[in-house]
Amino acid sequence: MSIRRWQTLTGSGFAIAAISAAVLVGSPCALADPSADPGASTSSDTAAEPSGAAAAPGKDTEQPTGSAGSEPDTAEAADTPDVDETEPSSADPPEEAEDDPDSPTLTEERRATKDEARASDPRPAAATEVEVADDSERETIRDVAPTEEQVEPVDGDADIATKPAATTTRTVAVRTESVPSEPDSEQEAVAAPIATAVDAVAVGARQPSLLTVVGSLVMNLLMGLIHLVDGAPVVPPGSTVTVRTSSLTLPVGTGEEVQADWYFPEVVDDSTHLVYLQHGFMASGPMYSYTAAHLAERTNSIVVVPSLSSNFFDPNADWVGGSTMQKAVAKLFEGQRTALTESASAAWGSVIELPETFALVGHSAGGTLVTAVAGYLADDDALDDLVGIVMLDGVEPKGSHAVNDALAKLTGEHYRPIQLISSQRYMWNRGGDMADKLMAARPDDFNGVALTGGTHIDYMEGGNGLLQFAEYLISGFSLRENVDAAGIITAGWVNDLFGGTANGVYGTPGQSISIATPSKPATAVVLPLGPAGPSPLGEYLDTLLHNVLEYAGEHLFVYEPLT
If you average pLDDT over every residue of the chain, what do you get? Predict the structure, then answer.
């Protein structure tokens, strides 16, 4: 049987397994909200033999100032985002231990220089500066950020210690409610009731139902099977990175524990950075183990890769594409970052202080999540430590507006670079939809590149060969040079975001750039994305899966909590 036929059969089976069982249930019947209990995570420890010290890039980046953003639709712009109010936990943070000179430490030097570093714009020279519209003009077309009750921070930072840290599980309550706001203009006063009416219709049409229940069971079963075969995270042969697994408590409900894989570079010191890497739809953290290890080694970063739910039927929108999960991840980076610190310390084996500045990297639906996270951080005025975002063939389902909402917020003083590596146009990246959105919102910025002959899995490399082969059957077989180039480009951009430099891959729109790789040169073309070529999946399968997922994204996926 030919590879093309295997691709057809496997791709069709994937779509049918994820969607058709729920569709065949019949007409929905209103039921009580189901809840899915997250499974307990396991622990693993994989260390590779050192092969040399990792390069240490520059310290904290200078934050950019100003860029033009796109105008959202009037109805969407009038929507008021939900507010997450996090109740403080009575649980104590990890116990401070005695200082040990052999333990990793991050000094106060980072904090002392951060304000000075934000004085200039770190955007690449290739990007053209754009004047930002006056705030008074922009205010009528973007979401109005509600106020939020602030949790009193805990004084002091965790000291470095060599003894194992006692892992403390916090119970965090999150209450979501709509906060009315007074219209700032006549235009907003008219738009607000229209948007409210539209929302009322949308909510009324999406009640928890039998479809939600059965669909959740199917999706949770599929995710369980994936976690059964993905195995523990591993690093590539010869890597100097160490990977360990712990649990991470997300501020969802009374606290939701998920698996988090932590990748530590050979040397952890004041030059070490923090990178959050988010997997895509129907994936898990270990499926990106090689990707994460390369990123940690090439950028001298601690890289955390949580495994989140892909259950798009969840009535609470608690999945990688839902607002509940996106808001929860944003909360991880606010305040004292206790949950992140506890998880990292449990993985490291002793109390560790995480770097203050961080970058967000996301593949596929994970690209949408990290962009939405930046938008929610802007709502809470908590963007100071975010240096920028890198999307790896980012994908947003048809019914979601998270990316456009975030792009509307990430302007002016809240501007942050967003750079995309895109595959060619085909169904797995929704025909290049993310590249088009970035170009529409930021037409004068450098927004990224597209890999010639690229596929959706170029950015998803793990140590499980059997699972990797299955991924290629579903999405098309990657060229080795494109896989290598994706890692090189990502690391270059992340280093530039932290260092305020422009040493990575940049250029002018339409420029073709040759990328040297260990196999053979790859070619990257600066966005905008060109026209579609032959699909790696074939025309028939590409069209079939596109139509199925477009329907599901518009009618089945739950992006906001159902009533």
Answer: 76
